[in-house]
Design a protein that fits this description.
The complex is a heterotrimer of chains A (167), B (552) and C (48).
Chain A lengths: L4 H27 L28 E6 L2 E9 L2 E3 L11 E5 L2 E9 L4 E5 L5 E4 L5 E7 L3 E6 L12 E7 L1
Parallel strand pairs in A: 2-5, 4-10
Antiparallel strand pairs in A: 1-2, 2-3, 5-8, 6-7, 6-9, 9-10
Chain B lengths: L1 H5 L3 H32 L11 H33 L3 H26 L17 H31 L7 H33 L7 H29 L1 H4 L7 H14 L16 H35 L7 H5 L5 H23 L5 H4 L3 H31 L5 H30 L15 H37 L26 H25 L16
Chain C lengths: L1 H13 L6 H27 L1
The chains are: A alpha+beta (167), B mainly alpha (552), C mainly alpha (48).
Chain lengths: 167, 552, 48
C-alpha cells in the first residue's frame, strides 16, 4: 500500500503526538502516582459502619496531623453524610486551612453517586460495595461546591455540600 | 422504471424507508425533549403536569442516542448493501422480522418511560430499577438488530462465494464491518440485560453485581459511538467524492481505517470507567493505550478527506495551496451538511482524546463538558452527515427528486444547526471545565458562587438549544417534503468510484478471518484478567432501588 | 541489470504523486489544535 509522503509525515507526527500524550500521562500515573481514583477496598453497602471510616462518629472531617485531614463521607440518595457537629446538627460545610492535604473516603449506602469537588481534581464515582478515595492538597483558598455528578434519582440535583479553604 | 435505474426493488426501498420513518419520528420527539431540558435548566421554566426532568432526560437519551441512530443506520446500511451486493427475497422477508422486533421493543421501553416507570437514563445504571418491560424492550431492540446483522453477513458470505478472489464493493465491506462491530459489542449489553437486569427487575434475583453490569455496559457503550460514526465515514469516503465530482482517494486506506475501527473500538470500555473504584488502574491504562490506537483511523480519515478535496479541485483547474476550497460545492446541501459535520469533528475528536487521557479524565468526568463533547460528535458530525445523506437518499428511495427549494432550506437548516450547536456545546464545554455537573435538573447548589457561574452558562445553553429546536422542526419539515411532496423523478444515488489507475487493494484487507480473530484476541486481552478480578473481589450485590426514580 | 532498475524507477515517477500541500497544511493545523487543546487541559489538571 503506497502512502503519499505527506501522509507518512502526518502519520508520524500524529502517532508521535499520541505517544507523547501517553508518556506524559503514563509517567504521571505510574511514576508520580497520579492514577485516576482506583481504590479496591470493598464494603457491605447494607452495613457500611462495619468499616471503621464510616462509623457515625468518624464521619466528617478529622485532623490527623498538622495540615493533614481525613474526610469520611457516606453518600446516599440524596445527601452527603458529613457527620454531626457539637450541637448534633448535620454538617453541611467543611472548613480546612489553605495548604492542607485532605484524604477523602467515600462510600454509598444505596445507588451509584458522584463525588465532585468543583474546581479540583477530586472527581470520583461512588459505588455501593466499594470505597472511593482520593488525596489532594487544597492550595487555593475559596468556596468549593461538592456536587453529585452521577444521576441517582429525582433528588440528584439537590445533593451537595461545600468545602471552604480559608487563609 | 425508477427502481430499475435505482437498482433497488420497490420492496427493498420500503424496507429502508420503514427504518427511516422511525428515525425521523424519533428526531422530533427527542428534539422536543432537548428543548424542554435546556429551558428547565435555565431556571425559567417548570415542566407541566408533574413531569419529572429525569423522565424527559431518559426519553431524550434513549430516543436520540439509541432509537434515531440505530434505525437510521440500519435503514441506510440496508440501502447501501442491497444496492451493491443484492438482497434475496428470503433475506428481505427475514429483515422485516428484525424491523418489527426492534419496533415492538422500542414501543415497549418507550411506554415504560412515558409512564414514569423507567427514569433511569439511557445508561440505566444499577441498582436504580426500572419496570422490567423497559429492559425487555431494550433486549428486543438489540435482538431485532441482530436479525439485520445476520442478513448482512449472509449477503456478504454469498457474494464472496460467487465472486471468489474479488474484492467486495467498498460500501458493502464497510456495512459488514460496522455490523460485525455492532454484533460483537451488543453481546456485552445483551448479556447484562438478559442475565442480570431482567431477572433482577422481575424479582428472580435478589441482588445485582453493579460493577459487572457497568463493565458489560461500557464494553458495549464505547463501540456504540463508532457504530454511529462509521456510517458517516461511509458517506465521507464513498459518497461525498461523487457529489463533488471526484474519485475515491484510496480504496485501500478506507478499508484499512474500517478494519482498525473494528479491532480497536471495543477493547477500550474502561475509559468510560476511569474514576470508578474496583478496577485495577494498570488495566485502565492499558485500555487507554488501546483507545489511543482507535484515534489513528480518524487521523487517516482526516488526511483522506482533505486529499480528496484537494485532488478534485486541482484536477478542475483550481490552483494555489487552498484554491481547491473554492471549488467545493458549498451550495449543494448534500455536500455542505456532511462537510460541516466533518469540521465539527475537529473539536469533537480532540475532546474525545482529552476525555480518554487517564488522569486528565478527572477534570471533565461527569461534567457538562462531556455532554458538550457528544453533542459535537453524534449530534453534529454524525447527525449532520445523516441529514446530508437524507437529501438524496429519501428522494431516491421514494422515487422523487431533491428540488432547488428543498436544497436551499437544507442549507439554512445546516446553518441554524451550526449556530445553535456552537452556542450550546460551547457553553457546555466551558461550564464543564468550571465543574458544572451533567445529568442535572436546575439547582442553585446551596447558593455557591460556582453554581451561579454554571447557571449563567445554562442560559446560553437554553439559547443554543432553542435555536437547535428550530433546526429540528425545519429538518422534520424537510423530511416530510422529501418523502411525500417532492416532485416525482429520478434522484441520483451518488456512489464514488476509484481512479481508473488506482493502486490495487491488497488482498489481506479482505481477510475477514484475520480481522475478526484479532478483534476477539484484543477483547480477550483487554478484559479477561480485569473482569475475572472484578468478579473474584466482588462485594455483596445490591438489591433494587425503585424509590429514587419515583417508583415503589 | 541497471537499465531494468532504471526503467522501473521511471515508471514509478511517471505516475506522479499528487500535489497535496493544502492537505498537509490542513492536517498539520488540525494536529496543532489537538496538541494545544490537550496541553491546555493537562495544565488545568496540574494546577488543580
Amino acid at each position: 500500500m503506497h502512502l503519499h509522503k505527506y501522509e507518512k509525515i502526518w502519520l508520524m507526527f500524529g502517532v508521535g503526538s499520541l505517544v507523547v500524550f501517553l508518556l506524559v500521562i503514563g509517567i504521571g500515573a505510574f511514576y508520580k502516582g497520579t492514577h485516576p481514583q482506583s481504590q479496591m477496598t470493598t464494603i457491605d453497602p447494607q452495613n457500611v459502619e462495619a468499616n471503621e471510616a464510616f462509623k457515625q462518629e468518624n464521619l466528617g472531617l478529622t485532623k490527623v496531623d498538622e495540615n493533614k485531614y481525613i474526610l469520611n463521607v457516606v453518600a446516599s440518595a440524596f445527601n452527603y453524610d458529613l457527620g454531626v457537629d457539637e450541637e448534633g446538627a448535620q454538617v453541611k460545610s467543611i472548613r480546612v486551612p489553605k495548604g492542607s492535604t485532605v484524604l477523602f473516603h467515600v462510600t454509598s449506602k444505596d445507588v451509584v453517586h458522584g463525588f465532585e469537588l468543583a474546581g479540583t481534581n477530586v472527581n470520583m464515582m461512588v459505588e455501593p460495595g466499594y470505597v472511593s478515595s482520593y488525596e489532594t492538597v487544597m492550595e487555593k483558598p475559596g468556596e468549593y461546591t461538592l456536587v453529585c455528578n452521577e444521576y441517582c434519582g429525582t433528588g440528584h440535583h439537590l445533593m451537595y455540600a461545600t468545602v471552604e479553604v480559608y487563609e | 422504471m425508477i427502481n430499475e435505474k435505482l437498482g433497488l426493488s420497490k420492496q427493498e426501498t420500503k424496507l429502508s424507508m420503514a427504518y427511516i420513518y422511525v428515525a425521523f419520528i424519533a428526531l422530533l420527539i427527542g428534539g422536543l425533549m432537548g428543548l424542554l431540558q435546556t429551558l428547565v435548566r435555565s431556571g425559567t421554566f417548570t415542566l407541566p403536569w408533574g413531569i419529572d426532568y429525569y423522565q424527559v432526560l431518559t426519553v431524550h437519551g434513549v430516543i436520540l442516542g439509541l432509537v434515531l441512530t440505530t434505525f437510521f443506520i440500519i435503514g441506510f446500511q440496508f440501502t447501501l448493501i442491497n444496492k451493491t451486493i443484492g438482497l434475496t427475497v428470503k433475506q428481505r422477508k427475514i429483515s422485516w422480522v428484525g424491523f418489527w422486533v426492534m419496533l415492538v421493543g422500542t414501543v415497549m421501553s418507550s411506554i415504560t418511560i412515558l409512564l414514569g416507570k423507567a427514569s433511569v437514563l439511557y445508561t440505566f445504571y444499577a441498582p436504580l430499577k426500572a419496570h422490567p418491560a423497559f429492559y425487555i424492550g431494550l433486549a428486543l431492540v438489540i435482538i431485532g438488530s441482530w436479525v439485520a446483522c445476520f442478513v448482512n453477513f449472509r449477503q456478504m458470505f454469498l457474494w464472496r462465494k460467487y465472486h471468489k478472489n474479488e474484492k467486495s464493493p467498498l460500501l458493502a465491506f464497510m456495512v459488514v464491518i460496522n455490523m460485525l462491530l455492532w454484533f460483537i459489542a451488543t453481546l456485552g449489553v445483551a448479556s447484562t440485560v438478559l442475565i442480570q437486569f431482567i431477572p433482577w427487575s422481575l424479582g428472580y434475583a435478589d441482588t445485582i453485581n453493579i460493577l459487572v453490569s457497568r463493565t458489560l455496559f461500557w464494553y458495549f457503550g464505547h463501540p456504540l459511538v463508532y457504530f454511529w460514526l462509521l456510517p458517516a465515514y461511509m458517506a465521507w469516503y464513498a459518497i461525498i467524492p461523487k457529489i463533488i465530482g471526484g474519485k475515491i482517494f484510496s480504496d485501500s486506506l478506507a478499508r484499512l481505517a474500517f478494519v482498525l475501527f473494528l479491532m480497536f473500538s471495543i477493547p477500550v470500555g474502561f475509559h468510560h470507567q476511569l474514576t470508578e473504584p474496583g478496577i485495577d488502574p494498570m488495566w485502565k491504562f492499558i485500555q487507554v493505550v488501546l483507545t489511543f490506537m482507535v484515534i489513528i483511523p480518524s487521523l487517516l480519515t482526516a488526511f483522506s478527506m482533505f486529499a480528496t478535496f484537494e485532488i478534485t479541485g486541482r484536477k478542475k483547474g483550481f490552483q494555489g495551496i487552498f484554491g481547491w476550497v473554492k471549488h467545493l460545492p458549498w451550495k449543494d446541501v448534500r455536500f455542505f451538511a456532511p462537510m460541516v459535520g466533518m469540521l465539527a469533528f475537529i473539536p469533537a475528536g480532540t475532546g474525545g482524546i482529552i476525555n480518554a487521557s487517564h488522569q486528565l479524565n478527572a477534570v471533565v468526568h461527569n461534567t457538562i463538558w462531556v455532554t458538550g463533547h457528544f453533542h459535537l460528535t453524534v449530534a453534529t458530525t454524525v447527525i449532520l452527515t445523516f441529514f446530508g445523506i437524507s437529501y438524496w437518499l429519501i428522494p431516491a428511495l421514494t422515487g422523487r427528486k431533491l428540488t432547488a427549494e428543498i436544497n436551499k432550506l437544507g442549507i439554512i437548516q445546516t446553518i441554524i444547526w451550526t449556530i445553535g450547536m456552537t452556542i450550546m456545546s460551547g457553553s457546555m464545554h466551558i461550564a464543564g471545565l468550571f465543574g458544572a455537573p451533567r445529568r442535572s435538573a436546575y439547582s442553585t447548589y446551596g447558593g455557591t458562587e460556582q453554581a451561579s457561574e454554571w447557571i449563567g452558562y445554562q442560559y446560553s445553553q437554553a439559547i443554543g438549544g432553542s435555536i437547535l429546536f428550530i433546526g429540528i422542526i425545519l429538518m422534520v419539515y424537510i423530511f416530510i417534503k422529501l418523502a411525500f411532496f417532492a416532485p416525482k423523478g429520478i434522484e441520483e444515488f451518488p456512489i464514488a468510484e476509484e481512479e481508473p489507475d488506482a493502486e490495487p487493494t491488497p488482498k489481506f484487507l479482505e481477510n475477514w478471518k484475520l480481522w475478526i480473530g484479532l478483534t476477539i484476541a484484543l477483547i480477550l486481552f483487554a478484559y479477561t484478567i480485569p473482569f475475572i478480578e472484578i468478579i473474584q473481589h466482588s462485594p455483596p450485590g445490591s438489591p433494587p432501588f425503585a424509590w429514587p426514580i419515583g417508583n415503589n | 541489470m541497471t537499465s531494468l532498475h532504471h526503467q522501473k524507477d521511471e515508471k514509478a515517477n511517471k505516475k506522479e504523486s499528487p500535489d497535496l500541500k493544502g492537505t498537509f497544511i490542513s492536517v498539520m493545523m488540525l494536529g496543532l489544535f489537538i496538541l494545544a487543546s490537550w496541553f491546555g487541559v493537562y495544565a488545568l489538571f496540574v494546577i488543580r
